[in-house]
Protein: aldehyde dehydrogenase (NAD(+))
Organism: Marasmius oreades
Amino acid sequence: LSSRASGVLSALNIPTNGEVNGVYDGQWRGSGKIMESVCPTTGEVLARVKTATPEETEVALQRTREAYASFRNLPAPRRGEILRQIRTALSDKREELGALVSLEMGKIKTEGIGEVQEFIDICDYAVGLSRMMNGRVVASERPGHSILEVPNPLGVVAVLSAFNFPVAVYGWNLALSLAAGNATIWKPSPTTPLCSIAVTSVIAEVLKKNDLPGAVAGLVTGGSDVGEALVNSHDVELVSFTGSERVGRLVGQAVASRFGKTILELGGNNASIVMPDADLSLAIPGVFFGSVGTAGQRCTSTRRLFLHRDIAAEFLEKLRKLYLSVEPGDPLVQDTLLGPMHNKAAVNVYDSTIDYLGSINAEVLCGGKKFDKAPFEAGNFVRPTIALPKSVNMKDKIWSTETFAPILNAAVFDDLEEAIEWNNAVPQGLSSSLWTRDIRNVGKWIGPSGSDTGIVNVNAGTSGAEIGASFGGNKSTGWGRESGGDAWKQYVRWSACTINFSDDAPLAQGVNFGI
Ligand code: UN1
């Protein structure tokens, strides 16, 4: 192993030679298929992870259920205290975990650390929530009666997360789920097992110190068979899935068919709209980060850019300059802005989309090919690309599909209504942003005839949401909501309780049953 990699792994006590256990259910184990974690920057194998066999998945799930049976009785503020300790433990390892995200996923240092920060932030939020997960008292129409709506723990929550946010998205789910009194079992992306092992180790320490079962936050690494076992199990009340629309559809249908609950975070196809009155000194860097940040591999990445005719030429010229200035580099090196794509499959998606742009005679303003000189021979580096497809028919696949790569397609519009129509004309509905200084545009944009996405920004890019509001998208993005806002309400089962404390037993609606 290179010293670059072994330094990051040893700082988190991950073995640097040999095999790593990929299952945690109170004990570390794993005797299933070996899964290699491959570094996107150098191509080296970082570790060989021993994944869960079907039996181990089943045992881990049963342990998680048992853990739930005791954990649910811990008062919510005491669960909050556990979350506070998890928060501190993560914060102590912020830099180390951030570096592991950069090493294994490929995102740059500040974003890797930012992801751990996002987990820390949601823990803070959930600590507060643990004292505020209030139900309510409802006025009863019957004398001597009270009606309560009580939030009770839900059960076992399975979190199926994606490679692009291998830490934060689990964090959103774990924090709310634990605050709500549930036990959680995590199936991470098969290509980022080490991030999940490191995070689970940190949490396991805290649980152990508090004499709580480790399976409160269980882990099963593996391929689609492990995911399917969780999705199809009646022992899982809620499946929180982040990934493609294709797999999300399968997960949604499978869980619905057994009357389970889902939270789906699927594809985004996010647009930025720039009005002629926009402050371009904000809009250009905003679109640049939205489209090139994380090498275009956020669900919230900016994929479509709609420019008003009056500023289009100037905007594109300035944006192009920024694109051309960006050099690929090792994501672990402080000043790198562009890391590799996550894996070869991602590079293939980039390549085939570039080919397709060629076949439809799109004008490619920059990018469109590999770097002549990439920092590492075997790294998955690609040039960020801006293209102007000839057609603005949003039904064309160049506009209507999510391409998980740093490719930005631009078009020119004449009035805001047209741009909003384009914004809303795709199947996905995750994030969108409008750049303007005119309050009338803002009102339209955030209102009934405005953007139909779950995240609707003004003078802020499509990506990089804070944890405080609920995060999620509409339409084929799956309608899921995670993180802040009212998202916690999905992690509980609501009990509507009518309590009669009178000496009479009147029926509601004045019904008289003859006695
Ligand atoms: C994702 O890409 O799956 O808003 C999540 C953002 C991040 C989360 C993205 N806070 O870009």
About this structure: The CA atoms of residues 507 and 514 lie 11 Å apart. The pocket of 2-aminohexanedioic acid is lined by residues 118, 164-165, 169, 242, 298-300, 463-465 (CB under 6 Å). The mean pLDDT is 97.
